[in-house]
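Annotated sample (chain length 115).
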Amino acid sequence: MSKKLFNQTKRERLASNPYVLRVSEKSITYADEFKRLFIDQYLSVQSPREIFEANGFDVEMLGMKRVEQGADRWKKAYEKDGITGLADSRKVAALRPSKRSLSLGEDDCQARSED
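Output written by the structure step:
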């Protein structure tokens, strides 16, 4: 991950971009739509920097390292799984049931809540 941090002003500026879902001091979550758009434009021989800039991102604020790492991650995901590989997998992971064993107290609470 890039070492560039985003102060409140930068976070607000990034959050105003329609292709940003969330932004914290350390990271950005891009919309799946932007990832698909990125791949389409990349396949038409545009550079990652050009794509980010054309879609309203300030590359100097983001840092080229972050741009390049995102581009590499999305290209690999696309090569492996096609367009579906670009979807944010964290949405699915959050819905999986926990695989850890419940403690005795947690097990009792869960049993009562199901009644």
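Annotation: Residues 8-114 form one domain.
Annotation: DSSP finds seven helices and two strands in the chain.
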